[in-house]
Amino acid sequence: MLDRGYFKDKDILVVGLGRSGYAVSCLLLELKAKVAVTEKQINDKLKETASLLERKGAKVELGGHTQDFLKNKDLIIVSPGVDKNNPVMLWAKERNIPVISEIELAYRLCPAKIIAISGTNGKTTVTTLIAKVLEEIGEKVYLCGNIGIPFSSQVLEMKENDFVSLEVSSFQLETIVDFRPFISVMLNFSPDHLDRYQNIDEYLWAKKRLFMNQDKEDFAVLNYDDPYVREMAKDIKAKIVFFRKEDKINQNFSAVKKVGEILGIDKRKIENVFSNFKGIEHRLEYVAEFKGIEFINDSKATNVESTLWALSNIDKPIILIAGGRNKGLSFEKIKEKIRKKVKLMVLLGEAKEVLKKEFCDLVKIEEAYSMEEAVKKAFIFAKKEDVILLSPMCASFDMFKNYEERGNVFKDAVRKIIQDYA
């Protein structure tokens, strides 16, 4: 753990001005570093954020990256959306400037015990449940990371006996150096983000970095039922603890139970948390029932596995709203489930044509050019006892800034339908 005075007068460049970029910039300014921020996009929201940082003393460029912003930099911190082909990453390599992720910087300042959760699906649910279990026994716990609350926004509040329940994505793991959780959890692994990674092996490499700094004093909690995850065990130095699906509870809950066992938590306390858990916003979230039609928001389903899980857990006829930015994934494994359970697909976003080609022989298809239009078309087609499900199978970035905004727009559209047709 670094002394907080370490960053004073260090000249640091932050790449990306999303949530984590803004949070880490504020952290560095509080630590008296010299901060510059570079962001390739430009819009009114970014201008407002840039203005806030400039008033705090940062230099900010929007609408593109320039090499001038790299001059005399001691360190570069990249946001999760910045990949290895970004020009700043290439310029940094040429100049031998160290590059780390936002979670790496926060880790270097963190006195608390870190429980880090990764996997292709289920991360947010498990990260939230672990935090709730720790709260149940009276521990101070910080819920943060890829869940939407940057690690760096909370790290200065943390103390030695606190816990961090940290959701970690493959993007964040690409540029860690010393990051070392006390407990790491790998929930599952399936193809995803193939719009960013060249192949599944490169994605797998990023995920496995979660364990790279752990040793025999640490724990790795792994899904025994997932062959990719089970295979990871042979290269891990930490103590291995396997979990698997149990009767009456799913694998996510089983993973939480194993973390609880490592920490010596009474299983009755854990079961109490499970019984009171209402789910996660944007993950199979019940929105409303109107005229016998149920509306469910599963905007967080940005890959095929997530939508497959959603379809498997709904027993009524489904009208599926899907689409967004294609991530280069195969849709083969979901085709049979769609043929059996989905009566209509309403497609929107950049992936419309790809999805139409994949599913047109299996199900009736409609197209829409906005979420509002998609919800309206789904509602007009729906009958009593149907479920209108937003479960996109795609990223949100073609039409929305993130899956949360997409889910909120869906919920607004549902409310408008109810108002208009009441």
Structure description:
It contains 15 helices and 17 strands. The protein has a six-stranded parallel beta sheet with strand order 7-8-6-9-10-11. β1, α1 and β2 form a beta-alpha-beta unit. The protein is globular and about 65 Å long. The relative contact order is 0.09. The mean pLDDT is about 95.
> Roughly how many Å apart are the termini?
59 Å
| Beta-strand percentage range | 15-25%
Outline type: globular
Give the overall pLDDT as a whole number: 95
Order of strands, main sheet, comes to: 7-8-6-9-10-11
**Overall domain count:** 3
- Looking at CATH, the homologous superfamily of the largest domain is Mur-like, catalytic domain
C-alpha Rg (nearest Å)? 22 Å
Number-wise, the strands total 17
CATH class of the largest domain: Alpha Beta
Q: What share of residues is helical?
A: 25-40%
For the largest beta-sheet, the strand count, sense and barrel status come to: 6 strands, parallel
Low-confidence stretches: none
Total of DSSP H or I helical runs spanning 4+ residues: 15
CATH topology of the largest domain: UDP-N-acetylmuramoyl-L-alanine:D-glutamate ligase
